[in-house]
Each structure stands twice: as C-alpha cells, then as structure tokens.
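Retro notes, item 3 of 5
We never archived the inputs for the magnesium ion complex last cycle. Fixing that now. Sequence and ligand:
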Amino acid sequence: MSDFPRIIAHRGASSLAPENTIAAFSKAMEVGARWFEFDVDIVGDGSLIVIHDDTLDRTTTGTGSYYRLGFSDIRRLDAGRWFSDTYRFERIPEAADALEFAHAQQMGANLEIKPCAGGERLRERLVESLAVAVAGSKVPSRLIVSSFDHELLAAFHAASPNVALGWLIERACEEWREGATALGARAIHPGVEGLSRRDVQAMRDAGFEVNVWTVNDVEQARELASWGVTGIFTDRPQDFPADALAL
Ligand code: G3P
Ligand code: MG
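Structure as it came back at the time:
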C-alpha cells in the first residue's frame, strides 16, 4: 500500500497555471498527476463551461453572471491574464474539451457540477447536456461526477446511470449516509476542515471511497492515507513524489 492516497489535481495544477483551463490540466499532466478535477456550469445557450464561480469577475476579463450569455461571448474572454501574463489568451474550455483532454492523456477526471443558479430550465438543460457529453466517444475511462447540489446529482444519475458519482459535502458532520447510499454513489467527497479518522472510517465501513478536498500539505496527505482515505484534491500536485502521483 502506498504512503499516499490518489492525488487529484484540483481545478488542474491550479497553483502553477490558471484554474480550470487546459493549461492547468496540461501542467497537472506535466508534473506527473494522473487525475484532475474541474468545475462545470451552463451558459444561456446551453453550452457547458468549465468555471468555478457563478460570475466571471475573479478568473476572466468578463464581469457578472454568465447565465444569459452564449458561448460566443465566453470564448472571447481571457481566462489566464488574472493569473499571470504567461497565460494571457487562455480560454474558458467547454466541458467536452476537458473530457477530451483527459481521454487523450489517459488521465482520470472528476467533473464537479456546480450548483447552477440560472433557474429551473437551465438546471434541466445542464443535466441533459452533461448526459450527452459523458456519452461521447472521447471521455476518460476513469470518470467521477460529483456535486454539492445533490438534487442535480440525482437528476444526472437518472439521465446517466452508469457514471460513478461523488457525494460532495463541506463538512463530514453533514448527513451523507442516507442520500449517498440511496443514490448508489461511489465516493464521499468531504472537505478536510474538521474531518476526523472516525469520519473516514465510517465512510469506508459504509462502502464508499473517500476523496478529500483541498489538501496542499504533503504530510497531511500522508496522514489521511493512514486513515484510509482513497484520494485527495490538491492545488499542488508538483509537491508529491512520482509514485504517489502514479496511483
Ligand atoms: O470537488 C472538490 C472541490 O473542488 C470542491 O470545492 O469549491 O473547490 O469546487 P470547490
Ligand atoms: Mg471543484
């Protein structure tokens, strides 16, 4: 058994390149990571975009909400300049681009569905479009779809019953057992804040994999592995040894 859990590059190698861009996924691959995580939401024309926030301000040259925009507006934005000049002109990818990248590089991927605040119709379209995207031929063979929005996760499961699911929670003290079991989730994805060995043991005993976010400290990752954690999300995959990254 390894000293480390599986290392999942959080939003790509997001300490080295702008989060949720192909540049960040490429960096993750370059430093040896075999898995990356990315966030997905929907824009007004039904396109699925890779972005964490529900507004454009922090990570792009755009402003405000994107729920009324089309992808032609999104593709004009610079999603790298906020991070550094090196990444000027980096674009917001579509979800299919991220899936295709993972497929092409034979990396595992965790697609996190953001709790879309664009209204009921867009939430329905998000699930429909995602089901189409993951049914494509260029998707990674190792794929986990997760969400804090358990209603969206259940709707996605109904549309795509064969995809492995991660039940995301902020804190391990939240109730997870009933919902995750009913949905047949593969994994619980708890935040590291306040997580205890006992919590991890209970999740493992209930038959779930446990992927913990966000862990940027190598020693903490090692300790989590000793608790039985399956994987960790990190902004700093470059800090981990090659044998840990290979898991
Ligand atoms: O999916 C793990 C982690 O990414 C959840 O939190 O806010 O970084 O998307 P957040
Ligand atoms: Mg995320």
